[in-house]
Amino acid sequence: MLLRPFKSPLPRPFSSLAPPNPNPNPNPTLISPSELETLILSHYRAPKFHRLLSSVVSLPSVLLAAASHLLLGSHPSSSDPPPLPSPLPFSLPSLSLSLRHGSLDPSSPSLSLRLFPSRTKGASLVLPSLPLKVAIEALRMVLASVFEPRLATFAYGGRGPAIGRHTAARYLKSAVESPSWWFRVALRREPFGPRHVRRLCAAIAEKVDDPDLLALIERLFTSEALAIELGGVQLARGFPQESGLAPILLNIYFDAVDREIQKIREEVHKRNPRLRSLPNEEDSRVFHRPIRVYAVRYLDEILVVTSGSKLFTMNIKDRILKLLEGELELIVDKLGTSIHSAVSEKMEFMGMELQAVPPSVLNPPLSEKAIRARKKYLKRKAAKAQELKNARETRRKKLGLKILNHLFKKLKRGHAVECGFRIESEVRDIFRGWAEDAVKEYFSSKEHCFYWHRMLTRGDFLSLNRIRDQLPPELVESYDQFQETVNKYLMPAWASRAFEEEEERRAEEEEERRYAKRTVDDLTELKMRVNAPIELVRRAVKLAKFTNSMGRPRPIKLLLCLDDSDIIKWYAGVGRRWLDFFCCCKNFKMVKTVVNYHLRFSCFLTLAEKHESTKRQAISHYTKDLKVINDNGEAEVHFPTEKEIKMMGDKNLADPKPVDGALSMILVRLAVDEPKCTCLAHFCTRRDTVLYRVRLLQNRLNVDPMNEKKWVPGMGAIHESLNKKCFPLCSIHASDLLLGRMSLQDIDCTSFVNVEENSLVPILS
Fold first, then answer.
1. What is the pLDDT of residue 757?
2. How far apart are CA 287 and CA 279, in angstroms?
3. CB–CB of 236/158 below 8 Å?
4. pLDDT attached to residue 537
């Protein structure tokens, strides 16, 4: 068996770095975010920041903070991540010194590695090593501190989990009112080339006066250690070909577009102010809907929505495209940037489907069946509350009897009962409440009311006409009023009939009011509906072989070589990625069905195929929740249970990664008898590792992801050069990678292990 770590052709440590500092700081400390912000502000001389690379990015404390960020990303399942290893796997003083002198060369073999795919026509991939990733992360932290406070409020992506896809979707659902026309800026797929880099450096130079920093960014793009594809589907998906620096650079690059859109919005708001003198719309027949412009930008995706005319929208589109094609030198797909009706046409944006619909579509009225079910539920809830109330009354009576019995015994024996405080008012309030409850409960019984009605009306001589004629009219009138009151409140038939009629009248009035309000709202306003592209989800399910040609679940034979727990974890990772990504959508139930049925039963069939059993036996062994026994003999549940899926909904604001990375990659465990290698997760020092081989979906199916007819439109793919690469991983990081909690972006892919094809075999458990 031949197993050796991959070594670059020139194994010189930091061949492009400056010589180490003769007096480096032996114990640098980790800098906090507030201290970093203070340090950056100390280099501000109006109107620019100066010497950020040599004075901030290159500091060992800032590099340690960047390494700590990478460590947090590679330990998502740890509530208390381990500290950075000491010593670090690279020379921190050398990296700091090379950054300070501006001599860091990303194309050095010790800082990056170029991988070639198996196909002759395939493009190569340059991956940064761990020290270069630390330098890039430190640069990202500094640029984010400088530029993020100046970004527009409708710019999402790359700004933390609280300003991501779900926040943008919530803004569209809550803020956009009565949209009429919209368009999405479709960019032609092209690499971020030299002309874009020049424009980016010019945008950074408006706030940062640091030639060394701009030169470093240019070298990153020239060496291809930092690559951005405009108009593609490779951003914010956790792919190894992505860079953590790309989102903030895109936000800086598109900031000119954001300012232009903000200027357009201010002009429209100024020309069409909202009238504050109108009465409340709920009580008025006058509806004022001023023209508004809404915009959302997620990295390089731009959506503009208007509530004006089509000609008005065309003018806005022309202004934005003129800026994109002129100042930013971007190539815009004119056909894909067409204006569409917000009501009759759906719009694909951020991997979701948008459409303007009446409010009744989002909140439809209850059907007759739902109304009956709700009444049944309320009745059952009232019965349960009554049982609890009776139980409390019973406990209260028992406690009162115990207290009275105790006091009686004390008095009987001649002992005086002493109390240190006056309790007459508290006792009076308690007994008043008990009495009111008792009277209310007594008169709510029809039998008691009928008894008192019979006692107050029988044998009354004042009802005789010959007696009434001899009495004063005031007495007769008072008696009649008394009888009417008795009949109203105590006669069971009359009281119940009057109560039912009153309830029916109130219900009819409330229903008429709701119907009128619903009709007026449907005629006067529109809301944004965010849906999951369920057809694309089903197509992805079919492409990944979860289902057969008939749409029935089927096993995936490539997973048979994995342990039972790893098989379940892989299915759970794909399912949770889908559930987390589409939890803010209106048709989330359909995504739940895909995960709960297609993925769950495909997992059962895969386990049954592995153990040569039937599906029923697999369900009986693993239960419907797919429980598996770990090494400690404890049952673990990785796949979301049916109850958990049923209770899922719109979560807290987050920016989840799509399912692309988890769906298009399978980790195959290999048999290894050689000495263990160190885990490749960032700053993980464990050596009890297992070797896993990456198998990519596009290589297994022999499909080009650029071909949308054979691939799923809008779904990205991991670069094909990583296919069949072997990574040693510890049990924790292998589990996190299978469960979709982390991605290949959190692994040092440049340190993969070279394995000959005929020397290793998969483990058959």
1. 55
2. 10
3. yes
4. 93
DSSP string, 19-86: PPPSS--SS--PPPHHHHHHHHHTTEETTEEE-HIIIIIT-HHHHHHHHHHHHHHT-TT-SSPPPPPS
Mean pLDDT per block of 10 residues along the chain (765 residues) reads: 41 38 62 92 90 92 93 84 86 91 89 84 88 94 92 89 87 90 93 93 93 94 92 85 91 94 93 71 65 93 93 94 92 92 91 91 84 90 90 85 78 65 68 74 68 66 69 78 73 62 82 84 85 92 90 90 89 92 91 92 93 91 87 83 85 78 88 77 89 89 86 89 90 90 89 67 43
Residue 47: cis peptide before it, omega within 30 degrees of 0: yes
Question: Torsion-angle region of residue 40: left (phi > 0), alpha (psi -120 to 50) or beta?
Answer: alpha
Look at residues 616, 592, 614, 601 and name the one whose alpha carbon lies nearest to residue 568. Answer: 601
Which has the closest alpha carbon to 712: 354, 348, 356, 355? Answer: 348
pLDDT on residue 282: 54
Contact 417, 404 (CB under 8 A): no
C-alpha closest to that of 544 among 321, 744, 715: 715
Phi, psi of 214 (to 5 degrees): -65, -35
Tell me what pLDDT residue 498 has.
Answer: 65
Would the CA dihedral through 640, 646, 648, 649 be positive or negative?
positive
From 267, 229, 287, select the one nearest 517 (Cα to Cα).
Answer: 287
Q: How many CA atoms lie within 13 A of 505 on its CB side?
A: 6
Count of CB atoms situated within 10 Å of the CB of 520:
14
Q: At what angle do helices 492-524 and 473-490 cross, to 10 degrees?
A: 70
Q: Retrieve residue 170's tokens.
A: 């919530």
Residues 717-750 as b or e (16 or more Cβ within 10 Å = b): bbbbbbbebbbbbbebbbbbbbbbbbbbbbbbbb
Residue recorded with tokens 């006792």: 427
Distances (CA, A) of 297 to 149, 226, 261, 403, 429: 16, 22, 10, 70, 62
Query: Vertex 306, ends 164 and 316: CA angle to 5°?
Result: 100
Instruction: Please give the model's pTM, rounded to 2 decimal places.
Output: 0.80
